[in-house]
Amino acid sequence: MRVRVLGCSGAIARGCRTTAFLLDDDVLIDAGTGVGDLSLDEMLRIDHVLLTHAHLDHVASLPLMLDTVAAHRLAAGAPPLQVHALPATIHALQAHIFNNLIWPDFTRLPSATAPLMRFVPMAVGQVLQVGGKAIEVLPAVHTVPAVGFAAASATGYWVFSGDTERNPAFWQRLNQLPVALLVIETAFSDREQVLAQRCLHLAPATLAEELNHIAPVPPHPRYPIYITHTKPAETRLIMEEIQRLEALPGQPQALRHDIRWLSAGMRFDL
After folding, report:
1. What is the mean pLDDT of residues 247-262?
2. By the number of CB atoms within 10 A of the CB, which of 21, 91, 103, 260 ranks highest?
3. What is the mean pLDDT of the chain?
4. DSSP 8-state code for residue 78
């Protein structure tokens, strides 16, 4: 399985694109502004979109991408684009975006029986079979109903936390999986820790607490942990704070962590 990072920022600025990952050529995980870097041909290959939640930085490009591919997919007689999401996420998108006021309702265009897009409800714990890939829906703790994902590959699981704060159920499941790579959010610096907790995001100090839930013994080898969703104005500070926490004495597992920084354009072969 190939994973391409289209966007991994918590907001926009030059060189910063919000969350979107392309798995192989046909499955999109979240639809943030990073989708805009895809060519038309690349967008046309996408048959499934999996959404972690309804916040704008994770869905902003979905309506625009649908408009881009509409004529080509309809002319080719392609099946509806499948958008997999929690029922609450689907409701939010129907009520606030695809409502024929903000954007056309592509679940009824060109007709309700042959639409361009179809919503597919999913649930935490479900294993989705999409594009020949098995992708498990993981729990997340956020201000709106949200999830993460674990995609199976030949070398282990590519795991994405989604937007989340402290999340014991996530680590319980993660420690049961052969993880190849973990992508986890850290949206705010520690100086904004109160705001992070209010918004249900991680900051470096809470990230360190969460990483201590990783099982310390085999069969759970040390795997790379990539930091995502940093706010552009705080990225450098967040990186410095995480590096300092990793170096602190008395952190029993800190030296085990292989923490790296995610950036748009990265590609992984798993």
Report:
1. 69
2. 21
3. 93
4. P
Cis peptide before 219 (omega within 30 of 0): yes
What amino acid is encoded at 168 in this protein?
A: P
**What one-letter code names the amino acid at 37?**
D
Pinpoint the alpha helices (H) of the chain: 40-44, 56-59, 61-75, 87-96, 168-174, 193-199, 204-211, 235-247
Give the model confidence (pLDDT) of 150-175 as tens digits: 999 999 999 999 999 999 999 999 99
Mean pLDDT over 136-143 rounds to: 98
Per-residue DSSP letter, 128: E
Distance CA 41, CA 248 (A): 48
DSSP string, 197-259: HHHT---HHHHHHHHTTS--STTS---EEEEE-B-TTTHHHHHHHHHHHHH-TT-TTGGG-EE
Please choose, from the candidates 39, 46, 7, 6, the residue with its C-alpha nearest in 3D space to the C-alpha of residue 25: 46
Statement: residue 20 has pLDDT above 80: yes
Distances in Å between the Cα of 73 and the Cα atoms of 78, 172, 219 are: 5, 41, 45
Residue indicated by tokens 């607490």: 209
Q: Does pLDDT of 253 surpass 80?
A: no
CA atoms within 13 A on the CB side of 268: 24
